[in-house]
Amino acid sequence: SLCSDEDPWAIAALEEGAYALRALEASGQALALLEQVEERYRTRPDTCFLIALLAMDVGDLQRAEAGFRRCLELGIGDPSGAES
Questions:
Q1: Phi/psi at 12 (nearest 5 deg)?
Q2: What is the pLDDT of residues 23-47, one digit of tens each?
């Protein structure tokens, strides 16, 4: 709540939080957190990868596979994931 959605570090902080939740075996909670920004950062490979990883953790293998394939399609691009 203390940062703007436009702050370039906001998504990285959110991803770090999701990784921390995953380490605490709360992948479902982490996935729910990232689902709130999934559409906004759909072209950011790091976010796409993390969502796929969390989907795999919770047993949604179809979503995980699609997400990992999407990461390969995206490759390395704009690290901010901002839409043009």
A1: -65, -40
A2: 999 999 999 999 999 999 999 999 9
- pLDDT one-digit tens code per residue, 49-60: 999 999 999 999
H or E stretch at 73: helix 61-74
Calpha distance 7→37 (Å, rounded): 14
Decide: 30 and 47 in contact? Cβ < 8 Å: no
- Here the tokens at position 54 are 């969390």
- List CB contacts of 39: < 8 A, sequence separation 6 or more: none
CB atoms within 10 A of CB 83: 11
3: left (phi over 0), alpha (psi -120 to 50) or beta: beta
Residues in the chain: 84
Count of other CB atoms within 10 angstroms of residue 65? 13
